Amino acid sequence: AQSVTQPDIHITVSEGASLELRCNYSYGATPYLFWYVQSPGQGLQLLLKYFSGDTLVQGIKGFEAEFKRSQSSFNLRKPSVHWSDAAEYFCAVGVTGGGNKLTFGTGTQLKVEL
Amino acid sequence: DTGVSQNPRHKITKRGQNVTFRCDPISEHNRLYWYRQTLGQGPEFLTYFQNEAQLEKSRLLSDRFSAERPKGSFSTLEIQRTEQGDSAMYLCASSSEEGRGTGNTIYFGEGSWLTVV
C-alpha cells in the first residue's frame, strides 16, 4: 500500500523568505501526487498536482513542486512567503486504478513571522 | 462551478444520537468521496461512489456508519449511536471518472465538523 511522509510537523519562516516543505512517498509505480492547503476549520484547497510529464509543476499562489523519482519525493517550494500562506499543508498520493483515493501525509503546519 | 457543498458545517450532538451529513458534489462529477480528519492528522479515506454505486469502503467505516448516493447526485453520511471517538471533520470530495480529463483531480468541500459530547 502507498504511504506519504511529511517529516516536518511545524515550520516557521519569516515573511519574504523562501520555503520548502518536504514530502516523501512510498509506491511501487509512478503515483499521482498532490499538495493541498488547509486553513483552520476549512476544507482542502488544491495547490498543484503531478500526473506525468514535466517533473516541475506550477501551482496557484506562486507555489511549485518537483517530482524526483530517484528520491521518491515531491517537495513544495515558494520563493517568497507571504503572511497569508500560514496554514497547514498536506501532501497526498493517488495510484493508477486506485479509484482516485488519496493517501495523505500528516501535514506540515506553516507559521509565518512578520 | 459552485464547488463541493457540505452541510451542516458544524454539528454538536450527544453521545448515542444519530447524525447525518449531506454533500452536494460538483455537478458534472460522477465520483464522490468521504474522508474523515481528526485533529493533527491528514484526511483518511472512508468510502467512495461512482454514480449511485458505492465501490469501496474503508475498514474505518464501522457498522454504525452508512453512506448513500441514491440518485448519483448528492450523498449522505449517517453515523448511528455516535461515540466520542467519532468527533472529527468529515470531508466530502468529488471528481470526474479516473483517466478522463481532470478525472484524477479531487476537489474537496469545506467539511462538516462533528463534536460528540
Notes on the protein architecture:
The complex is a heterodimer of chains A (114) and B (117). Chain A contains no helices and twelve strands. By secondary structure, chain A is an all-beta fold. In chain A, strands 2, 5, 6, 10, 11 and 12 form a six-stranded mixed beta sheet that branches. Chain A has a four-stranded antiparallel beta sheet with strand order 3-9-8-7, with no helix packed on it. Chain A has a two-stranded antiparallel ribbon with strand order 1-4. Chain A is globular. Chain A starts with a strand and ends with a strand. Chain B is an all-beta fold. Chain B is 0% helix and 48% strand. Chain B is built from no helices and eleven strands. In chain B, the strands form two sheets. In chain B, strands 2, 4, 5, 6, 9, 10 and 11 form a seven-stranded mixed beta sheet that branches. Chain B has a four-stranded antiparallel beta sheet with strand order 1-3-8-7, with no helix packed on it. In chain B, strand 7 and strand 8 form a beta hairpin. The model of chain B has no long low-confidence stretch (mean pLDDT 91). At the A-B interface, strand 5, strand 6, strand 10 and strand 11 of A face strand 5, strand 9 and strand 10 of B.
Task: Supply the helix-strand structural class of chain A.
Answer: mainly beta
- Radius of gyration of chain B in whole Å, from Cα? 14 Å
Low-confidence parts of chain A: none
Tally of helical runs of chain B:
0
Largest interface: A-B, 26 and 28 residues
Whole-angstrom Rg of chain A: 14 Å
Mean pLDDT figure of chain B:
91
> Could you give a short account of the major beta sheet of chain A?
6 strands, mixed
Silhouette of chain A: globular
Annotate the secondary structure layout:
The complex is a heterodimer of chains A (114) and B (117).
Chain A: E1 3-5, E2 10-14, E3 19-21, E4 24-26, E5 32-38, E6 45-50, E7 56-58, E8 64-68, E9 73-78, E10 87-94, E11 102-104, E12 108-113
Parallel strand pairs in A: 2-12
Antiparallel strand pairs in A: 1-4, 3-9, 5-6, 5-10, 7-8, 8-9, 10-11, 10-12
Chain B: E1 5-7, E2 10-13, E3 19-24, E4 31-37, E5 44-50, E6 53-57, E7 65-68, E8 75-79, E9 88-95, E10 107-108, E11 112-116
Parallel strand pairs in B: 2-11
Antiparallel strand pairs in B: 1-3, 3-8, 4-5, 4-9, 5-6, 7-8, 9-10, 9-11
